Amino acid sequence: MPSLPDGDPAPADGLLPPSVLAGAEDRALSLYVHVPFCSVRCGYCDFNTYTALELGPDVSQEAYHLDAEREVGFAARVLASSGLPRRPLHTVFFGGGTPTRLPAAHLTRILAVAREEFGLDDGAEITTEANPDSVTAQDLQVLADGGFTRVSFGMQSAVPQVLKTLDRTHDPRNVPRAVQWAKDAGLSVSVDLIYGTPGESLADWERSVTEAISYAPDHLSAYSLIVEEGTKMHSQMRRGVVAPIDPDDQAEKYELADDLLARAGFTWYEISNWSRAAQGRTATENRSAHNLAYWHNQDWWGIGPGAHSHVGGVRWWNRKHPMPYTTAVRAGESPAVGRETLDDDTRRFERIMLETRIADGLSIGVLDSQARQQIAPLVAEGLIDGREALGGHVVLTLTGRLLGDAVVRRLVT
Fold first, then answer.
1. Are strands 273-275 and 267-270 parallel, antiparallel or unpaired?
2. Where are the beta strands (DSSP E) in 304-351?
3. CA–CA gap between residue 28 and residue 125 (Å, rounded)
4. Residue 370 pLDDT exceeds 70
5. In terms of C-beta density within 10 A (0-12 exposed, 13-18 middle, 19 or more buried), how is residue 174 classed?
6. If you ran DSSP here, which 8-state letter would residue 367 be given?
7. Which domains, ranges and CATH numbers included, belong to the chain?
8. At what angle do helices 404-412 and 344-355 cross, to 10 degrees?
9. Per the database record, which ranges form the Radical SAM core domain (predicted)?
């Protein structure tokens, strides 16, 4: 599990500096709610999650929603006391962990408190991640009735052996059933896949993408497997128990996924994300508005242990373990353990890094004169779209998406 970044101490009252007020009315506000509980820790996962065995009796999943609600109220008070205008929430996203380890009624209660404290934009996107084995049709109907609009299922693969290597415990046969339950409840559906697992053949990956498409989701994410130091899988690779990641294999699988998805009517809008026109909505409307808020560097408050927040160029992060997190919020204090104020160069770098990832592209006007000199060579090398460049935007080609980090490096040096 990664350590928290270095930073300045976070004040107990959570108040933000006056610099966050500049342009605040033009920035959307989102809420992220971290639910740090899982039934089993997957071997590749380095997220801030815990099993019941790891937490022991001192941390109650049953009472977690009350602490999340306390931080929601604390967030509203801090933003108001810092002088920020009241902004209804543009998006709310419950992630983890496995949010649906909590009862659906607890998730809807947290959302109700967020609505009471902040209000919601008309048409606000409200998403929860879910394990296909951790929900029932009734759960999904409770979520829909409580205001959720979207669910993102962690499918990862359709191949049992690949799921076993990833330590995923769900039954892949439950995915289409859960997707249909969500649709029946009126929820928009996203499906998440992972490619590049050791031992996964190209045919395995094609099967996974094809089966995911057959469930007719509105949105699909496909992430390359990244194995971080400290995870079980990293240790297995170091000992030679499983094969190392093969970048060429991952590139081939990405290209295959993009081709299969395009033929099925999906349009890429971010390197790892595709959407399609469905349920009376356009492909653009079925994009993840919450993730786009991150990629456009809008404001968001992260609720829960280890959650990160960003408002007006100030970033902070909460205590990782649920116990000290709970102690802080019950005392009416900020659960943040550190924060930083981003300087202009860092904010510019992050804008280039994030907006280059999306199909809407990065305005060339953001680049300095030296970086603009890289545009023509990048077009010639087939990494950015020439027609889009003439229109004033950096938009990656398919090859450019595979080499996105290299493109960014050339635009910021």
1. antiparallel
2. 308-311, 314-318, 336-341
3. 12
4. yes
5. middle
6. S
7. 18-295 (3.20.20.70), 344-413 (1.10.10)
8. 150
9. 23-267
pTM, 2 dp: 0.94
Contact 199, 165 (CB under 8 A): yes
What is the rounded (10 degree) CA torsion for 308, 310, 316, 318? -30
Contact 209, 222 (CB under 8 A): yes
**Are the C-beta atoms of 301 and 77 separated by less than 8 Å?**
no
pLDDT at residue 240, rounded to an integer: 86
Q: Residues 6 or more apart from 149 whose CB is under 8 A from it? A: 124, 125, 126, 127, 187, 188
**Average pLDDT of the chain to the nearest whole number:** 93
Interatomic CA distance for residues 345 and 350, integer angstroms: 9
| CA-wise closest residue to 288 among 130, 152, 104 | 152
C-alpha torsion angle, residues 35, 150, 250, 257 (rounded to 10): 170
In order of 141, 145, 149, 155, 280, the CA distances from 185 in angstroms are 5, 8, 10, 19, 15
CA-wise closest residue to 28 among 300, 350, 344, 291? 300
Tens of pLDDT, residues 302-340: 999 999 999 999 999 999 999 999 999 999 999 999 999
Quick count: other Cβ atoms within 10 Å of Cβ 89? 22
Q: What pLDDT, in 10s, does the model give residues 141-188?
A: 999 999 999 999 999 999 999 999 888 888 898 999 999 999 999 999
**Region 365-376 average pLDDT:** 96
Cβ–Cβ under 8 Å, residues 311 and 20 = yes
Q: Are 196 and 246 in contact (CB under 8 A)?
A: yes
Give the residues across from 89 on adjacent strands: 29, 120
pLDDT reading at 296 higher than 70: yes
Count the Cβ atoms, other than its own, within 10 Å of residue 133: 16
